Amino acid sequence: MLLNIFKKKILSFQELFPDGFNDIHSHLLPDIDDGAKSLEDSIELIQLFRNIGIKNITTTPHILGEVWQNTPTIINDKLNLVRKELIKKNITDISLNAAAEYMLDDVFMELLKEKNLLTIKDDFILVEFSYINHPENVLDIIFEIQTQGYKPILAHPERYNYFHKNIDMYRKLKQIGCYFQLNLLSLANYYGNEAHKIAVSLLENNLIDFLGTDIHHKKHFSFLNKIGTKKNVKLLRPLLRNNEILKK
Ligand SMILES: [Fe+2]
């Protein structure tokens, strides 16, 4: 009894998002990137999402140079495969859609010219930078994306180490209209202290627009249930419903 009094209360994912959560970043389609390895794996991950109250999912396979050469056809074929399996398994309360997580490389610039991009919703696209360095003319690239009619959402800005000592870049990107999507796992220290610290600072400075799980495998779920600390709840409260506008 005495122990319980001193035990810190951590809200479960479902308690943190009582109205549900529309996830816009994950890797759930089978065998097309570094996420789900098989159809079985996909279904297991989706069931784990369901267990924590996430029933709206737009999953985002990587499209990354020569490493992950996914196309809208490949992605949509895999999506249909998983949707059929969900029906077969009588899992009918999940809304599963697919877009992509685009690495801003030369391949992307070609796709942008062709205007052949998968959007999260309307004109919103999910983009990422390399973890080694950002594209040289990053502000011009963001501008070019906007000129082509898309709205870029930068995935996990807190994970780019080269920005940690160049905080001004975050402000510059925001000023030109780039949206930011924080990885919830960062708040559970999953990517280390530095990414955690930056995640908190971005939230404190109101620089985050959207949230995502970036789930790749089932081990990630145990971390999702660790984010509901008093401090994080306070930081996340203003953002809890932001992802609703991206619901398909
Ligand atoms: Fe991702």
Explained architecture:
There is one protein chain. The protein has 248 residues and is of the alpha/beta class. The protein has one domain (18-239): Metal-dependent hydrolases (TIM Barrel, Alpha-Beta Barrel). It has helices at residues 2-6, 13-16, 39-51, 72-88, 106-114, 138-147, 161-164, 168-175, 193-204, 219-224, 230-236, and strands at 22-23, 56-59, 62-63, 95-98, 101-103, 124-128, 151-155, 179-183, 210-212. The strands form two sheets. It has a six-stranded parallel beta sheet. The protein has a three-stranded parallel beta sheet with strand order 1-2-4. It starts with a helix and ends in a 12-residue tail after the last helix. The mean pLDDT is 95. The protein binds fe (ii) ion. Residues 25, 27, 101, 155, 214 line the site of fe (ii) ion.
